Amino acid sequence: MSKTKGRVTLPSESHFLKETREMLDRWGADALRDSDGTKLDDEIKSLDAKIYTTYFVARGHNEFAEKHMDECQQMLLMSKHNLALDTTVTIDFLDGYFREQVQADYVHDPKKWWEVIDRTTQEIVPLDSWSVDTDRHLVTVTDAVPFHEYTVSFFVYAIWDPTQMYNHITNNWGDKPHDIPFDVRQPASGAFARDYLKKWLADNPDTDVVRFTTFFYHFTLVFNADAKEKFVDWFGYGATVSIRALEEFEQEYGYALRPEDIVDNGYYNTTFRVPTKAYRDYMEFIQKFVARKAKELVDLVHDAGREAMMFLGDNWIGTEPYGPYFESIGLDAVVGSVGGGATLRLISDIPGVKYTEGRFLPYFFPDTFYEGNDPCVEAIDNWLSARRALMRNPVDRIGYGGYLSLAYKFPKFVDYIEKVTDEFRLIYDNVKGKKPYCGLKVAILNSWGGLRSWQSYMVAHALWYKQTYSYFGILESLSGAAVDVVFMSFDDIRNNGIPKDIDVIINAGDAGTAFSGGEEWLDEKLITTVRRWIHEGGGFVGVGDPSAVHRGGRFFQLADVLGVDKELGFTLSTDKYFKDALDTHFITEDRTGCFDFGESRHDIYALSASTEIIEYSDNEVHLAANAYGSGRGVYIAGLPYSYENTRLLMRVLYFAAHKEESFLRWYADNVNCEVNAYPESGKYAILNNSNEEQTTNFYDGEGTCEKLTLRPCEILWR
What we know:
GO terms for molecular function: 1,3-beta-galactosyl-N-acetylhexosamine phosphorylase activity; 1,4-alpha-oligoglucan phosphorylase activity. It is a single chain. The chain is α/β, with parallel strands linked by helices. The protein has 18 helices and 36 strands. The strands form nine sheets. An eight-stranded parallel β-barrel has the order 1-2-3-13-16-17-18-19. A seven-stranded mixed β-sheet has the order 21-20-22-23-30-29-28. Strands 4, 5, 7, 8, 9 and 12 form a six-stranded antiparallel β-sheet that branches. The longest helix has 27 residues, at 277-303. The protein is globular, with a radius of gyration of 27 Å. The two termini are 15 Å apart.
C-alpha cells in the first residue's frame, strides 16, 4: 500500500516536538490536537498541520466559577428508599453520593422545590409533614406510616465536572484543581461564556479549529461515596435541571414540572424508559435552548475565521445530532468516539455538518498503555469492527486522543496504526459519496425513532451491558451490512403510516422498555396499521420481547404475526403440542456453528402447527418464522454481535422480505467475509473481517460465483 497523507488527527503535547514531527509523517496526519490534561506549545503549533484546540465552555474557568457559586450547574437527585419503623423517619438524603461532586442546594427553598414521596403509595408527603436539617443534611418525616418507604427528591449544586473527575482519578492528578461547571442559563455565566470566547479567539490566533468539548451540559454521570460511577446515562438530561430552567419551562410550556418528572422513581428517565410527554417536552425545551446558545458561540468562531467542531460526548446534552434543532447551530464538524460499527455510523450519518471525524480506540491513557499490555489487541478489534461501517458511509477523518508520549513507547502499536491510517484513506477515496448497493430497506422501530439513530440499546455510549448486548448486536451487524437502515418511532407510524419503500421492520428489546415499546402497543391505531402493512406483504422481525405488553390473552401483541408468544404462567394448563423444529430452512441454510441468542428469552412457545420452528431447545422456541397474509414474521430470542449472527440476521431479513432469490448478489459465503459494491463507480470490495487468512465463494451482482482467498484483514478492491 503506497503512502498517503491527510484526514488524520494526531494528539500531541508540549516538549514532544521531534517525536510529533515523526508521527505526523508516519501516520500521514494533517492535524494536531490537545487532550484533557495536555497542551500544545508554540513549537508544536508551528508544525505543518491544522491545529485543533479543546475548548471547554462551562468548565475549566474556576476563577470565574468560584466567584459565582450560585450559578453552578444543578441536578435533581433522589435519596435511597428509607423504611419507616415508626411514625417518624429521618433520611440522610446525600447517603451514597460523592460529596466532592455535589452539595445540597439550600439557597432555594426546599419546601418549594423538593419533594418527599411515600413510595409505598406513590403519594406526595404534605409540606408540613417534613423538615430539613441544613447542618446535618437530613430530612425528617413526621406522620409517617410504619413500614412504608420514603424518598426525598432534592436539588444539589454540581461542583465538580464528572469527566474531569474521571480523568483526575484515572491519571492520579492529585492536587490539580477540580473543574467547577457553571450554568450558561444564568446571567453572569451566559455573558462570561460569550465574552471569554471572544477574548480567547483573539489570544489564540494559531488555533484553526475550536473543538468544543462540548457545550453546556454533561450527560448524567453521578458518582457514589467511593468516587465510583453511581449512575451514568450517556443520553441523560439530569445535569440540565436547575431552578431557573424549571421556571422558564413553566413560562414557555404553560405547566410546571414536578421533581418526580425528572427523578422518575430513581430511573432518571433513562433512555430505556418509554418517555413521558413531560420528559419529551423538557428534552425539546433544553434542545432549543442549547441550539440557540451554541449558535451564538459558533457564530463568534466563524466571525474570527475559524472552524467550529463539536465533540459528541462529555457536555453534549441538548445537541441531539439527529434532532430538529441541531443543524441550526451551524457547526462545521462533529467528532465522536468510535467503539465499533454502530458508533461509527452514529457519527458518519450525522446531517448538516461539513465533515465528521471518528476518534478511534484505544485512548492513549495509562489504563491501556502500560508495561506488559499490548494495545494492538484493542486497536485491531476496534478497527475491524469500525471498518465494516466505513465501507457503508465513512467519516471524513479519523484520529486518536490522549498522551502521544505514552503511545510512542509502543513501536508495534505505532507500526499498526500507520497501516490503519493508510487503509482509511484508501477506503475514503473509493467509498465517500458513492451510494453502496443495498438489497433491502430496514426500519428499526422504537419509542425514539430518528432522534436516536444508531443509538438504541446504549447506556454509556458503546459500553457492554448484560441486558443489552443481545440487542445491540442488531445495530452492530447492520452498521456494515448491505442494507439501507432507517429509524422509525411509534409516533411516526401513528402520524404518517409506514413508508412504501420499507421492506422489513425490526422491533427488539426487553418488555416495557422504550425499544420494545411497552404500552405503545396498546394503541389500536398503531397495531392495526402494523398488522395491515405486514398482511399486505411487509416483513416483521421481533427480537427478545417484541410488542410485549400483557392484554387480551397475549403478551406479544403481534403474536399472531410472529407465530409465537411467551408463557407468563397463565396458560401452563393449556397444552402446547408444537415443538418439532424443521430440518432445513433458508434462514439457517449455511449455518455452521452453534446458535448464540445471548441472554435469550425463555418460555417462548409456538401458537400453531403453521409456525415454522427453526430452533427449539430446552422446551422453548428461540427462532421461528410465520406466514401472515402476504407478509412474514420472524422471531429471534436474542442476537449478540458476531459474524455468524450477522449472517443469520441477513438471512432473516431477506426471508421476511420475500427476497430470498436476491440473497446471492454481492455476497461472500464465508461469514468472516463481506462484499460491498458501488454501482455508480463500478467498483466493489471483498473484505476479510478477520485477522486470519480466509477462503470464500464470492457472488457478484449477477450471482456468478468465484472462489477467492484473502489475506488476514485484507480488502480486495476490484
